[in-house]
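pasting for ref
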Amino acid sequence: MSDDLWGTARLDLKAYLNRIGVAEPPGPSREALEEIYNAHLRTFTFDNIDVLLEQHPGVDLPDVQGKFVGRGRGGYCFEHGTLFAAVLDRLGFAVERRLARVGADPTAAGRTHLVVVIGPSTSSGHRLDGERLLVDPGFGLSLWRPIPLVDGAVDAVQGVTHRVRWSEHGWALERSKDDGWELMHTHDEALVVPSDVAIGHHYTSTHPSVHFRHRMIVTRLLEDRHLSLTNNTVTIRREGEETEHREIGLDEVMGFVEELEVPLTDDERARLSERLKTLD
């Protein structure tokens, strides 16, 4: 897919790499992909704060770049996927944007999640292990490194195991649970263009039935743990330890927002605190 369609020339690649603390690689490679992906996940939160505050700037690349790279903020799948795909495009990777259906029943969900598929060859002809690779930077507790887009591929990172499976509805991404596998989302191979992403974002940020409008979600992959925060709970996962999950009050929620280093202005912080009081 051409760079012109997605306008990736508008990306300030140097500023992005500076923000995540990674030097520009000499060329596309599996090692470079894994380094940049890991740094991206550790730099930017997954969150829906701007949806709750009704101030979302949109998912056009300059808007996402201004929010993430300029302010150090995070966002949700359409933002993460837009930015990360543009970065890989500029670095010479062969990139496909794909839309997914979230949840256990693909027939009951719209295509409201954005994932990124890389390879198997780069635009310069370098092969990435001869396989296509799936990354999912905007799903909260998702892939922590690229996984081969191969039926039956399994990967375990920091105590979390994922599997890719080909199904009647497309490529299923599953997470291991105590009693089996939990279906996270299913993506197909249909063409995706910028208007698809804009429409998906509009639905997930404005439709009254969407959970992003009724529940705060903030997650981040930290050095020693993965932390998931909602408007009334916190979940902390550490490799080799039992998952901690408990209900918390507003003051503790706002304390975790600070711990996750979400760069809010004083006005945003005050409005978020008031908005959380209205949520169940």
